[in-house]
Design a protein that fits this description.
Largest sheet: 4 strands, mixed
Shape: globular
Structural class: alpha+beta
Distance between the termini: 64 Å
Radius of gyration: 25 Å
Strand content: 5-15%
Strand order of the largest sheet: 1-2-7-4
Length: 537
Protein backbone atom coordinates (compact mmCIF):
# COMPACT_ATOMS: atom_id res chain seq x y z
CA UNK A 1 0.00 0.00 0.00
CA UNK A 2 2.91 2.32 0.91
CA UNK A 3 4.65 1.45 -2.37
CA UNK A 4 1.50 2.34 -4.36
CA UNK A 5 1.27 5.69 -2.55
CA UNK A 6 4.93 6.43 -3.32
CA UNK A 7 4.40 5.54 -6.96
CA UNK A 8 1.40 7.89 -7.14
CA UNK A 9 3.43 10.78 -5.69
CA UNK A 10 6.24 10.10 -8.17
CA UNK A 11 3.73 10.01 -11.03
CA UNK A 12 2.27 13.35 -9.94
CA UNK A 13 5.75 14.87 -9.75
CA UNK A 14 6.56 13.63 -13.26
CA UNK A 15 3.26 14.98 -14.63
CA UNK A 16 3.81 18.36 -12.98
CA UNK A 17 7.37 18.56 -14.32
CA UNK A 18 6.30 17.67 -17.87
CA UNK A 19 3.47 20.21 -17.65
CA UNK A 20 5.88 22.93 -16.56
CA UNK A 21 8.29 22.09 -19.39
CA UNK A 22 5.46 22.15 -21.96
CA UNK A 23 4.12 25.42 -20.53
CA UNK A 24 7.58 26.98 -20.59
CA UNK A 25 8.15 25.83 -24.17
CA UNK A 26 4.75 27.20 -25.20
CA UNK A 27 5.56 30.53 -23.55
CA UNK A 28 8.84 30.81 -25.44
CA UNK A 29 7.13 29.99 -28.74
CA UNK A 30 4.32 32.46 -28.09
CA UNK A 31 6.59 35.27 -26.88
CA UNK A 32 9.34 35.01 -29.49
CA UNK A 33 9.18 34.67 -33.29
CA UNK A 34 10.10 31.25 -34.54
CA UNK A 35 12.99 32.76 -36.54
CA UNK A 36 14.57 34.14 -33.37
CA UNK A 37 14.39 30.76 -31.65
CA UNK A 38 15.84 28.99 -34.70
CA UNK A 39 18.66 31.50 -35.09
CA UNK A 40 19.54 31.22 -31.42
CA UNK A 41 19.70 27.46 -31.61
CA UNK A 42 22.25 27.80 -34.43
CA UNK A 43 24.62 29.64 -32.10
CA UNK A 44 27.04 27.73 -29.85
CA UNK A 45 25.34 26.60 -26.64
CA UNK A 46 24.26 23.49 -24.77
CA UNK A 47 20.87 23.61 -26.41
CA UNK A 48 19.20 22.24 -23.30
CA UNK A 49 18.28 25.60 -21.85
CA UNK A 50 15.26 25.89 -24.12
CA UNK A 51 13.64 22.96 -22.32
CA UNK A 52 14.54 23.84 -18.77
CA UNK A 53 11.55 25.23 -16.90
CA UNK A 54 13.70 28.21 -15.99
CA UNK A 55 16.20 28.09 -18.84
CA UNK A 56 19.90 28.31 -18.09
CA UNK A 57 19.04 30.32 -14.99
CA UNK A 58 19.30 26.94 -13.31
CA UNK A 59 23.06 27.27 -13.74
CA UNK A 60 23.28 30.52 -11.79
CA UNK A 61 24.95 29.87 -8.46
CA UNK A 62 22.98 31.39 -5.60
CA UNK A 63 25.02 33.91 -3.65
CA UNK A 64 24.77 32.04 -0.39
CA UNK A 65 26.42 28.94 -1.93
CA UNK A 66 29.36 30.83 -3.43
CA UNK A 67 31.88 29.65 -0.88
CA UNK A 68 31.67 26.08 -2.19
CA UNK A 69 34.35 26.97 -4.75
CA UNK A 70 36.79 29.79 -4.07
CA UNK A 71 39.08 31.03 -6.88
CA UNK A 72 39.78 34.30 -8.68
CA UNK A 73 37.15 33.28 -11.23
CA UNK A 74 34.27 33.03 -8.80
CA UNK A 75 31.38 35.47 -8.96
CA UNK A 76 27.60 35.24 -9.20
CA UNK A 77 27.66 33.62 -12.63
CA UNK A 78 30.23 31.07 -11.56
CA UNK A 79 28.65 28.25 -13.57
CA UNK A 80 28.14 30.47 -16.60
CA UNK A 81 31.82 31.41 -16.54
CA UNK A 82 32.60 27.75 -16.97
CA UNK A 83 29.95 27.75 -19.69
CA UNK A 84 31.94 30.48 -21.46
CA UNK A 85 35.03 28.29 -21.30
CA UNK A 86 33.26 25.56 -23.26
CA UNK A 87 32.78 27.91 -26.21
CA UNK A 88 35.95 29.97 -25.90
CA UNK A 89 37.06 29.24 -29.48
CA UNK A 90 33.78 30.61 -30.79
CA UNK A 91 33.85 33.69 -28.55
CA UNK A 92 30.06 33.57 -28.45
CA UNK A 93 27.28 31.43 -27.03
CA UNK A 94 23.58 31.64 -26.23
CA UNK A 95 21.58 30.85 -23.10
CA UNK A 96 18.03 31.28 -21.85
CA UNK A 97 17.15 33.01 -18.62
CA UNK A 98 13.52 32.06 -18.04
CA UNK A 99 11.91 33.08 -21.35
CA UNK A 100 14.51 35.71 -22.23
CA UNK A 101 17.28 34.84 -24.71
CA UNK A 102 20.77 36.05 -23.83
CA UNK A 103 23.89 35.96 -25.97
CA UNK A 104 27.37 36.39 -24.49
CA UNK A 105 30.39 37.58 -26.48
CA UNK A 106 33.91 37.55 -25.06
CA UNK A 107 36.53 37.53 -27.83
CA UNK A 108 37.86 40.79 -29.25
CA UNK A 109 36.49 40.17 -32.76
CA UNK A 110 32.99 39.26 -31.53
CA UNK A 111 32.94 42.10 -29.00
CA UNK A 112 33.82 44.55 -31.78
CA UNK A 113 30.79 43.46 -33.82
CA UNK A 114 28.45 44.41 -30.96
CA UNK A 115 30.08 47.54 -29.51
CA UNK A 116 31.17 49.12 -32.79
CA UNK A 117 27.62 49.39 -34.17
CA UNK A 118 26.28 52.93 -34.53
CA UNK A 119 22.68 51.70 -34.58
CA UNK A 120 22.80 49.22 -31.69
CA UNK A 121 22.65 51.85 -28.97
CA UNK A 122 19.84 50.50 -26.83
CA UNK A 123 20.95 49.00 -23.54
CA UNK A 124 19.68 45.65 -22.23
CA UNK A 125 16.20 45.70 -20.67
CA UNK A 126 17.86 45.35 -17.25
CA UNK A 127 18.78 49.03 -17.48
CA UNK A 128 15.04 49.80 -17.41
CA UNK A 129 15.19 49.13 -13.69
CA UNK A 130 17.09 52.41 -13.34
CA UNK A 131 14.37 54.52 -15.00
CA UNK A 132 12.43 55.51 -11.84
CA UNK A 133 15.68 56.90 -10.44
CA UNK A 134 17.72 58.09 -13.44
CA UNK A 135 14.97 58.63 -16.01
CA UNK A 136 16.24 58.68 -19.59
CA UNK A 137 19.66 60.17 -18.98
CA UNK A 138 22.86 59.45 -20.88
CA UNK A 139 23.18 55.96 -19.38
CA UNK A 140 19.66 54.73 -20.21
CA UNK A 141 18.61 56.74 -23.30
CA UNK A 142 19.28 55.65 -26.88
CA UNK A 143 19.01 56.73 -30.54
CA UNK A 144 18.39 60.43 -31.15
CA UNK A 145 17.84 61.36 -27.50
CA UNK A 146 21.12 59.72 -26.57
CA UNK A 147 22.96 61.39 -29.48
CA UNK A 148 21.62 64.81 -28.44
CA UNK A 149 22.64 64.31 -24.79
CA UNK A 150 26.07 62.97 -25.74
CA UNK A 151 26.73 65.97 -27.98
CA UNK A 152 25.52 68.34 -25.25
CA UNK A 153 27.64 66.78 -22.51
CA UNK A 154 30.87 66.02 -24.38
CA UNK A 155 32.34 69.55 -23.91
CA UNK A 156 32.03 69.12 -20.12
CA UNK A 157 34.62 66.32 -20.29
CA UNK A 158 37.15 68.09 -22.49
CA UNK A 159 40.63 67.97 -20.99
CA UNK A 160 40.78 71.75 -20.63
CA UNK A 161 37.67 71.55 -18.44
CA UNK A 162 38.71 68.45 -16.50
CA UNK A 163 42.07 69.89 -15.46
CA UNK A 164 40.19 72.56 -13.51
CA UNK A 165 38.79 69.81 -11.27
CA UNK A 166 42.24 68.53 -10.36
CA UNK A 167 42.07 70.66 -7.21
CA UNK A 168 38.88 68.82 -6.15
CA UNK A 169 40.63 65.46 -6.62
CA UNK A 170 43.62 66.61 -4.59
CA UNK A 171 41.58 68.28 -1.84
CA UNK A 172 39.43 65.20 -1.21
CA UNK A 173 42.50 62.93 -1.47
CA UNK A 174 44.17 64.92 1.32
CA UNK A 175 41.13 64.40 3.55
CA UNK A 176 41.30 60.67 2.75
CA UNK A 177 45.01 60.51 3.59
CA UNK A 178 44.35 62.16 6.96
CA UNK A 179 41.64 59.59 7.69
CA UNK A 180 43.93 56.70 6.68
CA UNK A 181 46.72 58.08 8.85
CA UNK A 182 44.50 57.51 11.87
CA UNK A 183 44.02 53.90 10.69
CA UNK A 184 47.73 53.24 10.25
CA UNK A 185 48.08 51.81 13.76
CA UNK A 186 45.19 49.32 13.56
CA UNK A 187 45.58 45.79 12.29
CA UNK A 188 43.68 46.36 9.04
CA UNK A 189 40.91 48.34 7.37
CA UNK A 190 38.22 47.44 4.86
CA UNK A 191 39.38 49.87 2.19
CA UNK A 192 36.28 49.85 -0.05
CA UNK A 193 33.82 51.87 2.09
CA UNK A 194 36.53 54.39 2.96
CA UNK A 195 37.42 54.91 -0.71
CA UNK A 196 33.73 55.02 -1.68
CA UNK A 197 33.07 57.98 0.62
CA UNK A 198 36.02 59.83 -0.92
CA UNK A 199 34.76 59.09 -4.43
CA UNK A 200 31.28 60.33 -3.54
CA UNK A 201 32.68 63.62 -2.27
CA UNK A 202 34.70 64.02 -5.48
CA UNK A 203 31.82 63.29 -7.84
CA UNK A 204 29.30 65.42 -5.96
CA UNK A 205 31.58 68.45 -5.88
CA UNK A 206 32.62 67.98 -9.52
CA UNK A 207 29.15 67.31 -10.92
CA UNK A 208 26.93 69.39 -8.64
CA UNK A 209 29.41 71.90 -7.25
CA UNK A 210 28.21 70.86 -3.78
CA UNK A 211 30.47 69.76 -0.93
CA UNK A 212 28.80 66.79 0.79
CA UNK A 213 31.49 66.11 3.48
CA UNK A 214 30.74 62.38 3.20
CA UNK A 215 34.21 61.45 4.42
CA UNK A 216 33.97 63.40 7.65
CA UNK A 217 30.21 63.56 8.28
CA UNK A 218 28.52 60.71 6.40
CA UNK A 219 24.96 61.75 7.24
CA UNK A 220 23.68 63.23 3.96
CA UNK A 221 20.25 61.79 2.98
CA UNK A 222 21.30 62.16 -0.65
CA UNK A 223 24.45 60.07 -0.21
CA UNK A 224 22.59 57.44 1.82
CA UNK A 225 19.90 57.38 -0.87
CA UNK A 226 22.40 56.85 -3.71
CA UNK A 227 24.00 53.92 -1.87
CA UNK A 228 20.60 52.40 -1.04
CA UNK A 229 19.32 52.71 -4.61
CA UNK A 230 22.48 51.13 -6.00
CA UNK A 231 21.94 48.10 -3.77
CA UNK A 232 18.22 47.81 -4.60
CA UNK A 233 18.87 47.86 -8.35
CA UNK A 234 21.43 45.07 -8.00
CA UNK A 235 19.02 43.08 -5.85
CA UNK A 236 16.35 43.35 -8.52
CA UNK A 237 18.66 42.08 -11.28
CA UNK A 238 18.71 38.63 -9.70
CA UNK A 239 15.04 38.37 -8.72
CA UNK A 240 13.01 37.81 -11.91
CA UNK A 241 9.72 38.04 -10.00
CA UNK A 242 10.60 41.72 -9.45
CA UNK A 243 11.13 42.41 -13.16
CA UNK A 244 7.48 43.17 -13.97
CA UNK A 245 7.06 46.94 -13.65
CA UNK A 246 3.37 46.88 -12.75
CA UNK A 247 3.85 44.69 -9.69
CA UNK A 248 7.31 45.83 -8.50
CA UNK A 249 5.90 48.75 -6.43
CA UNK A 250 3.80 46.28 -4.40
CA UNK A 251 6.89 44.48 -3.09
CA UNK A 252 8.72 45.94 -0.06
CA UNK A 253 11.84 46.40 -2.19
CA UNK A 254 9.82 48.25 -4.83
CA UNK A 255 8.23 50.60 -2.32
CA UNK A 256 11.61 51.30 -0.75
CA UNK A 257 13.14 51.99 -4.17
CA UNK A 258 10.43 54.48 -5.13
CA UNK A 259 10.49 56.22 -1.74
CA UNK A 260 14.27 56.52 -1.79
CA UNK A 261 14.18 57.79 -5.38
CA UNK A 262 11.81 60.52 -4.25
CA UNK A 263 14.25 61.58 -1.48
CA UNK A 264 17.15 61.74 -3.95
CA UNK A 265 15.04 63.65 -6.50
CA UNK A 266 13.91 66.15 -3.89
CA UNK A 267 17.52 66.96 -2.99
CA UNK A 268 18.62 67.32 -6.62
CA UNK A 269 15.55 69.36 -7.60
CA UNK A 270 16.15 71.76 -4.71
CA UNK A 271 19.80 72.16 -5.64
CA UNK A 272 18.93 72.80 -9.30
CA UNK A 273 16.24 75.33 -8.38
CA UNK A 274 18.54 77.25 -6.03
CA UNK A 275 21.43 77.27 -8.49
CA UNK A 276 19.14 78.39 -11.33
CA UNK A 277 17.70 81.23 -9.24
CA UNK A 278 21.19 82.41 -8.31
CA UNK A 279 22.24 82.38 -11.96
CA UNK A 280 19.18 84.37 -13.03
CA UNK A 281 19.80 86.96 -10.33
CA UNK A 282 23.42 87.35 -11.43
CA UNK A 283 22.38 87.68 -15.06
CA UNK A 284 20.11 90.59 -14.06
CA UNK A 285 23.19 92.47 -12.91
CA UNK A 286 24.78 94.59 -15.63
CA UNK A 287 28.22 93.86 -14.18
CA UNK A 288 27.62 90.14 -14.33
CA UNK A 289 26.27 90.52 -17.85
CA UNK A 290 29.57 91.98 -18.96
CA UNK A 291 31.50 89.25 -17.18
CA UNK A 292 29.40 86.47 -18.71
CA UNK A 293 30.32 87.70 -22.19
CA UNK A 294 33.99 87.64 -21.42
CA UNK A 295 35.90 84.63 -22.80
CA UNK A 296 37.70 84.17 -19.48
CA UNK A 297 34.33 83.51 -17.80
CA UNK A 298 33.58 80.76 -20.31
CA UNK A 299 36.87 79.08 -19.49
CA UNK A 300 36.24 79.26 -15.76
CA UNK A 301 35.69 75.99 -13.92
CA UNK A 302 32.06 75.00 -14.00
CA UNK A 303 30.44 71.89 -12.53
CA UNK A 304 28.39 69.79 -14.92
CA UNK A 305 25.26 71.19 -13.29
CA UNK A 306 26.35 74.73 -14.21
CA UNK A 307 26.94 73.77 -17.82
CA UNK A 308 23.49 72.19 -18.07
CA UNK A 309 21.80 75.15 -16.38
CA UNK A 310 23.49 77.57 -18.76
CA UNK A 311 22.18 75.50 -21.67
CA UNK A 312 18.72 75.46 -20.08
CA UNK A 313 18.62 79.22 -19.47
CA UNK A 314 20.16 80.34 -22.75
CA UNK A 315 18.77 77.83 -25.26
CA UNK A 316 15.99 76.00 -23.39
CA UNK A 317 17.21 72.79 -25.05
CA UNK A 318 17.09 70.81 -21.81
CA UNK A 319 14.48 70.92 -19.04
CA UNK A 320 15.06 70.98 -15.29
CA UNK A 321 13.84 67.38 -15.07
CA UNK A 322 16.35 66.35 -17.74
CA UNK A 323 19.10 68.18 -15.86
CA UNK A 324 18.20 66.17 -12.77
CA UNK A 325 18.41 62.95 -14.83
CA UNK A 326 21.97 63.74 -15.88
CA UNK A 327 23.12 64.90 -12.45
CA UNK A 328 21.75 61.74 -10.82
CA UNK A 329 23.19 59.60 -13.64
CA UNK A 330 26.72 60.92 -13.25
CA UNK A 331 26.58 60.75 -9.47
CA UNK A 332 25.50 57.11 -9.73
CA UNK A 333 27.95 56.14 -12.48
CA UNK A 334 30.85 58.20 -11.23
CA UNK A 335 31.21 57.06 -7.64
CA UNK A 336 30.79 53.28 -7.69
CA UNK A 337 32.96 52.48 -10.71
CA UNK A 338 35.90 54.63 -9.66
CA UNK A 339 35.80 53.61 -6.00
CA UNK A 340 35.91 49.90 -6.85
CA UNK A 341 38.72 50.51 -9.37
CA UNK A 342 40.79 52.33 -6.73
CA UNK A 343 40.11 49.63 -4.14
CA UNK A 344 41.13 46.76 -6.45
CA UNK A 345 44.24 48.70 -7.49
CA UNK A 346 45.34 49.18 -3.88
CA UNK A 347 44.52 45.53 -3.13
CA UNK A 348 46.71 44.25 -5.97
CA UNK A 349 49.53 46.65 -5.13
CA UNK A 350 49.34 45.34 -1.57
CA UNK A 351 49.88 41.79 -2.85
CA UNK A 352 52.91 42.63 -4.97
CA UNK A 353 55.60 44.51 -2.99
CA UNK A 354 57.98 44.76 -5.98
CA UNK A 355 55.24 46.57 -7.92
CA UNK A 356 54.67 48.85 -4.95
CA UNK A 357 58.41 49.61 -4.81
CA UNK A 358 58.36 50.71 -8.46
CA UNK A 359 55.32 52.93 -7.84
CA UNK A 360 57.04 54.49 -4.83
CA UNK A 361 60.18 55.13 -6.89
CA UNK A 362 58.15 56.82 -9.62
CA UNK A 363 56.27 59.01 -7.16
CA UNK A 364 59.52 59.97 -5.39
CA UNK A 365 61.01 60.99 -8.73
CA UNK A 366 58.01 63.25 -9.37
CA UNK A 367 57.43 64.77 -5.92
CA UNK A 368 60.64 64.19 -3.97
CA UNK A 369 59.93 65.06 -0.35
CA UNK A 370 57.35 67.71 -1.23
CA UNK A 371 53.80 67.40 0.07
CA UNK A 372 52.33 69.67 -2.63
CA UNK A 373 49.09 68.88 -4.42
CA UNK A 374 49.03 66.62 -7.46
CA UNK A 375 48.75 68.67 -10.64
CA UNK A 376 47.91 67.76 -14.23
CA UNK A 377 51.55 67.47 -15.29
CA UNK A 378 52.17 65.05 -12.41
CA UNK A 379 49.28 62.89 -13.66
CA UNK A 380 50.92 62.69 -17.10
CA UNK A 381 54.23 61.63 -15.53
CA UNK A 382 52.69 58.71 -13.57
CA UNK A 383 53.32 56.32 -16.45
CA UNK A 384 54.02 53.18 -14.42
CA UNK A 385 51.13 53.85 -12.03
CA UNK A 386 48.86 54.13 -15.07
CA UNK A 387 50.03 50.66 -16.19
CA UNK A 388 49.25 49.36 -12.69
CA UNK A 389 45.74 50.87 -12.78
CA UNK A 390 45.05 49.45 -16.25
CA UNK A 391 46.25 45.98 -15.27
CA UNK A 392 44.08 46.11 -12.15
CA UNK A 393 41.07 46.99 -14.31
CA UNK A 394 41.94 44.12 -16.63
CA UNK A 395 41.75 41.57 -13.82
CA UNK A 396 38.89 43.30 -11.99
CA UNK A 397 36.93 45.46 -14.45
CA UNK A 398 34.59 47.78 -12.58
CA UNK A 399 31.70 46.74 -14.82
CA UNK A 400 32.05 43.07 -15.72
CA UNK A 401 29.19 42.95 -18.25
CA UNK A 402 27.76 45.43 -20.78
CA UNK A 403 24.30 44.70 -22.19
CA UNK A 404 22.68 45.58 -25.53
CA UNK A 405 19.23 44.88 -26.92
CA UNK A 406 19.83 43.74 -30.50
CA UNK A 407 17.33 45.38 -32.85
CA UNK A 408 18.69 44.19 -36.21
CA UNK A 409 20.41 40.93 -37.16
CA UNK A 410 24.18 41.22 -36.72
CA UNK A 411 26.61 39.12 -38.74
CA UNK A 412 29.35 37.82 -36.45
CA UNK A 413 31.73 35.76 -38.59
CA UNK A 414 29.75 32.66 -39.53
CA UNK A 415 27.13 33.35 -36.86
CA UNK A 416 24.12 35.64 -36.75
CA UNK A 417 23.19 37.50 -33.57
CA UNK A 418 19.42 37.65 -34.10
CA UNK A 419 17.15 40.63 -33.72
CA UNK A 420 15.25 40.53 -30.42
CA UNK A 421 18.00 38.94 -28.31
CA UNK A 422 19.86 40.46 -25.37
CA UNK A 423 23.60 40.52 -26.04
CA UNK A 424 26.04 40.84 -23.16
CA UNK A 425 29.72 41.64 -23.53
CA UNK A 426 31.47 39.63 -20.83
CA UNK A 427 34.40 41.93 -20.00
CA UNK A 428 35.69 39.76 -17.17
CA UNK A 429 36.20 36.85 -19.54
CA UNK A 430 37.34 39.02 -22.48
CA UNK A 431 40.21 40.35 -20.37
CA UNK A 432 41.37 36.79 -19.69
CA UNK A 433 41.86 35.75 -23.30
CA UNK A 434 45.22 33.93 -23.15
CA UNK A 435 45.93 34.71 -26.81
CA UNK A 436 45.92 38.43 -25.98
CA UNK A 437 47.09 38.29 -22.35
CA UNK A 438 49.39 35.24 -21.84
CA UNK A 439 49.20 33.76 -18.34
CA UNK A 440 46.05 35.87 -17.83
CA UNK A 441 45.77 35.44 -14.06
CA UNK A 442 49.21 36.94 -13.49
CA UNK A 443 49.25 40.55 -12.32
CA UNK A 444 51.71 42.17 -14.69
CA UNK A 445 51.51 45.96 -15.18
CA UNK A 446 54.12 45.75 -17.94
CA UNK A 447 51.40 44.38 -20.24
CA UNK A 448 50.38 48.01 -20.69
CA UNK A 449 53.78 49.48 -21.47
CA UNK A 450 53.81 51.19 -24.90
CA UNK A 451 55.85 48.42 -26.49
CA UNK A 452 53.61 45.62 -25.15
CA UNK A 453 50.38 47.43 -25.98
CA UNK A 454 51.36 48.11 -29.60
CA UNK A 455 49.25 46.11 -32.06
CA UNK A 456 46.76 44.86 -29.47
CA UNK A 457 43.20 44.55 -30.78
CA UNK A 458 41.35 47.73 -29.73
CA UNK A 459 38.40 45.70 -28.44
CA UNK A 460 40.50 43.24 -26.41
CA UNK A 461 40.57 45.60 -23.42
CA UNK A 462 37.40 47.59 -22.76
CA UNK A 463 37.09 48.54 -19.07
CA UNK A 464 35.22 51.69 -20.13
CA UNK A 465 33.30 49.97 -22.93
CA UNK A 466 34.18 50.99 -26.51
CA UNK A 467 32.62 52.23 -29.70
CA UNK A 468 30.02 55.03 -29.84
CA UNK A 469 28.73 54.28 -26.32
CA UNK A 470 32.09 54.28 -24.62
CA UNK A 471 32.25 55.93 -21.21
CA UNK A 472 32.20 59.70 -21.60
CA UNK A 473 33.91 60.11 -18.22
CA UNK A 474 36.84 57.71 -18.65
CA UNK A 475 39.47 60.47 -18.68
CA UNK A 476 37.87 61.99 -15.58
CA UNK A 477 37.95 58.55 -13.91
CA UNK A 478 41.63 57.88 -14.69
CA UNK A 479 42.65 61.31 -13.42
CA UNK A 480 40.72 60.69 -10.21
CA UNK A 481 42.09 57.17 -9.68
CA UNK A 482 45.71 58.22 -10.27
CA UNK A 483 45.34 61.24 -7.99
CA UNK A 484 43.81 59.31 -5.09
CA UNK A 485 46.06 56.24 -5.34
CA UNK A 486 49.22 58.34 -5.70
CA UNK A 487 48.22 60.51 -2.73
CA UNK A 488 47.89 57.39 -0.59
CA UNK A 489 51.15 55.80 -1.74
CA UNK A 490 53.17 58.99 -1.35
CA UNK A 491 52.67 58.63 2.40
CA UNK A 492 51.88 54.97 3.03
CA UNK A 493 52.81 51.39 2.29
CA UNK A 494 49.93 48.94 1.91
CA UNK A 495 49.72 45.21 2.44
CA UNK A 496 46.74 43.05 1.47
CA UNK A 497 45.89 40.30 3.93
CA UNK A 498 43.90 37.93 1.72
CA UNK A 499 45.17 36.05 -1.35
CA UNK A 500 43.14 36.32 -4.53
CA UNK A 501 41.83 32.77 -4.30
CA UNK A 502 40.16 33.69 -1.00
CA UNK A 503 38.28 36.66 -2.44
CA UNK A 504 34.86 35.72 -3.80
CA UNK A 505 33.56 38.08 -6.45
CA UNK A 506 30.02 39.34 -6.79
CA UNK A 507 28.84 40.70 -10.11
CA UNK A 508 26.59 43.44 -8.84
CA UNK A 509 26.27 46.68 -10.80
CA UNK A 510 30.04 46.77 -10.32
CA UNK A 511 32.23 43.78 -9.61
CA UNK A 512 32.87 43.89 -5.89
CA UNK A 513 34.13 41.38 -3.28
CA UNK A 514 31.70 39.27 -1.31
CA UNK A 515 33.34 40.38 1.94
CA UNK A 516 35.94 42.95 2.91
CA UNK A 517 39.07 44.06 1.09
CA UNK A 518 41.36 43.83 4.10
CA UNK A 519 44.43 46.03 3.84
CA UNK A 520 47.09 47.02 6.35
CA UNK A 521 48.24 50.62 6.06
CA UNK A 522 51.53 51.85 7.49
CA UNK A 523 53.55 55.01 7.06
CA UNK A 524 56.42 54.54 4.65
CA UNK A 525 58.90 55.19 7.45
CA UNK A 526 57.55 52.20 9.43
CA UNK A 527 58.80 48.63 9.09
CA UNK A 528 56.54 46.34 7.09
CA UNK A 529 56.85 42.55 6.79
CA UNK A 530 55.63 41.26 3.43
CA UNK A 531 56.62 37.62 3.99
CA UNK A 532 53.04 36.48 4.45
CA UNK A 533 51.74 38.17 1.28
CA UNK A 534 50.08 35.82 -1.17
CA UNK A 535 50.13 36.46 -4.86
CA UNK A 536 49.87 34.79 -8.25
CA UNK A 537 53.33 34.28 -9.82
Amino acid sequence: MLAIGSMSILLYVIIIFISIVLLYTACVILIHPRKLVNDLNKLPGLGLGFFYPIGHAILIKPQRFQKVIASPHVYDFLALQGYNTLFYKDGIHHAWNFTIPFISVYRADTVEVVLHQNNELKKSFLYNFLHPWLGMGLLTSYDEKWRHRRKLLTPAFHFNILKDFQHVFSKQSKILVDILDKQSKVNHVDILPIITRCSLDIICESIMGAEMHTQTKPTSPYVKGVLELTYLVFQRFFRPWLWIENIYPYFPAGRKFLNTSAIVHEFTDKLISERKQAKLERRMSSVDSQVSNDSSYKRKKRALLDLLLDEHIQNNSISETEIREEVDTFTFEGHDTTSIAMSWTLYLIGLHPWVQDKVHDELDSIFGESDREVDVDDIKNMKYLECVVKESMRLYPSVAVFGREIREDLQCREHVIPKGSMCHVNVYFLHRDPEVFPNPEKFDPDRFSPENSAGRHPFAYVPFSAGPRNCIGQRFALMEVKTVVSSILRKFKVKSLDPRDKINLLNEIVMRPEGEIRIQIRRRTDDFDFKTVYYYP
